[in-house]
Amino acid sequence: MTTATLQNNLQDVINYLDNLDSVDLVNIHNFYCELKGLPDYGIFYNNEEFFDEYFSVNSWKAVKATVLGDYNLSHDYVTFNEYGNLDSFNDPSEFVSIFDIAKSIIETPDVYDIELISLND
Q1: What torsion, rounded to 10 degrees, do the Cα atoms 70, 72, 75, 80 define?
Q2: Coil, strand or helix: which one is 77?
Q3: What span, in angstroms and rounded, lies between the C-alpha atoms of 74 and 46?
Q4: How far is CA 110 from CA 16, 18, 80, 82, 93, in A?
Q5: H-helix or E-strand containing 34?
Q6: Dihedral sign for Cα atoms in the order 105, 109, 112, 117
Q7: Which uninterrupted H or E stretch holds 79?
Q8: DSSP class of 70
């Protein structure tokens, strides 16, 4: 993640997150998921490496996960839905809770390598 200096208010952090490119947004989302103990909610690149890592032992499980989910091979990203099936998409902002991540950044900026400043200082 990139080091950032932001105003110490929720709206500034939300604006910062809203302006991240897709790669940085996915990275900060996945970091947030790890911090909260929610690795199954991570967002992954929809590529062969993902399928090798998660389905190399059971290819039938991969077939079921794609057929029973909302999956499209041409999409850039993939995540597991609440049923353990795959949902794919091109715009990760649809699956990222900007508000929850912003609150987490306000609460623990050092964990995110973000410096929060007050304009009154």
Answers
A1: 40
A2: strand
A3: 8
A4: 16, 20, 29, 31, 23
A5: helix 22-35
A6: positive
A7: strand 77-80
A8: B
What is the rounded CA–CA span in Å between residue 116 and residue 5? 6
Conformation bin of residue 10: beta by default, left when phi > 0, alpha when psi is -120 to 50: alpha
For residues 51 and 63, give the distance between their C-alpha atoms in angstroms, rounded to a whole number. 10
Which pLDDT score is estimated for 46? 97
Q: Tens-of-pLDDT digits for all 121 residues of the chain?
A: 556 666 678 888 999 999 999 999 999 999 999 999 998 899 999 999 999 999 999 899 999 999 999 999 999 999 999 999 999 999 999 899 999 999 999 898 888 887 888 755 4
